[in-house]
Design brief:
The protein is built from eight helices and eleven strands. By secondary structure, the chain is α/β, with parallel strands linked by helices. The strands form two sheets. The protein has a six-stranded parallel sheet, with helices on both faces. The chain has a five-stranded antiparallel sheet with strand order 6-5-9-11-10, with helices on one face. Helix 3 links the parallel strand 7 and strand 8. It is globular and about 50 Å long. It starts with 6 loop residues before the first strand and ends with a helix. The structure holds zinc ion. Zinc ion binds near residues 13, 14, 15, 26 and 65.
Length: about 300
């Protein structure tokens, strides 16, 4: 038992979960999404249960897809603390990360502009994102935002491209891929989930990673899906430089990059000024969505 991490934060996304096989599976208020929420919940529960079974003392799960309301708490071990929705800070989106020593990333995807399954960074409206000439996967933003608390990124699961990007960014991180190449019909979700949980337990011994603190400065290039009109509008809104369909940002460090991207992807100056209210409304929207998922579930599996 000694030498293992004992307090774990799980960041859970949907695209790399075992239930997501199309964009609709990740899209709010579609019947595919309702089904995917159930499978994503089962993936997370398999990991949570395995972690508790091997004796760790604390698990916090942060639901990090879209509204942040995808996981069904009634299907997750009650000993885990499940956090829905978003908080402004101190860690963007997460609020307080709690007493975790290490973070595991489940259901993740590859960076915008790369060829992974449903690849994107923060939003599919970004077509391509480069930081100092390299694609920027979300794991870098999330892991860096936890680094000041000393939280070490130890485990990552997502498509093979996403896993490769995680390993490039974070030396020695343990990865467990989900390969969707052969299609859903040939995929054994139960077997995969069992192996995922086992891999997560093994990663509790991964003491080789360190908190992720990449060095600045960073030159960021953001290409929007909708082209130069969108880039111009966003650049003007935030006082940034744009060249054609590309927004160019000179950032001091990765936290600066993250804040710029949050603004570009989710905010306007007005929403930023009224953020507590905006977040309350957004979280209410998420709760309504999850209530709808439950009603769909009763239709799919009446008992
Ligand atoms: Zn997602």
């Amino acid at each position: 038992m000694s030498g293992r991490f004992r307090r774990i934060l799980i960041i859970a996304d949907i695209e790399g979960s075992s239930g997501c096989w199309s964009y609709r599976g990740s899209s709010f208020m579609t019947t595919e999404w309702a089904r995917t929420c159930l499978e994503m919940t089962r993936d997370v529960q398999a990991v949570v249960q395995a972690l508790f079974e091997c004796g760790i003392e604390y698990v916090r799960v942060k639901d990090f897809h879209r509204t942040g309301y995808n996981l069904l708490p009634e299907l997750i071990d009650a000993r885990a603390e499940l956090i829905h929705g978003y908080r402004a800070g101190p860690v963007p989106g997460l609020g307080d990360p709690g007493p975790a020593e290490a973070v595991m990333f489940l259901g993740m995807h590859a960076a915008s502009g790369t060829d992974g399954f449903l690849a994107h960074t923060l939003t599919s409206r970004i077509r391509q994102l480069e930081v100092n000439g390299n694609p920027l996967p979300e794991i870098q933003l999330f892991a860096a935002s936890l680094a000041s608390r000393g939280i070490k990124p130890i485990f990552f699961s997502g498509c093979p491209v996403a896993c490769a990007q995680a390993r490039t960014a974070i030396e020695h991180i343990s990865v467990f891929p989900i390969d969707k190449f052969a299609g859903q019909e040939r995929f054994d979700a139960i077997a995969w989930r069992t192996d995922l949980a086992q891999a997560a337990v093994t990663a509790l011994n991964n003491k080789r990673t360190i908190p992720f603190k990449p060095q600045g400065p960073m030159r960021v290039k953001v290409r929007m899906q909708t082209g130069s009109t969108a880039a111009r509008k966003i650049a003007r809104r935030w006082g940034l430089v744009h060249q054609g369909d590309q927004i160019v940002i000179e950032a001091n460090d990765i936290h600066d990059v993250y804040m710029h991207l949050i603004r570009i992807c989710y905010l306007t100056p007005f929403i930023e000024k009224t953020l507590p209210l905006g977040l309350r409304l957004y979280n209410l929207w998420g709760r309504l969505g999850l209530a709808w998922v439950r009603r769909q579930q009763k239709r799919i599996e009446p008992n």
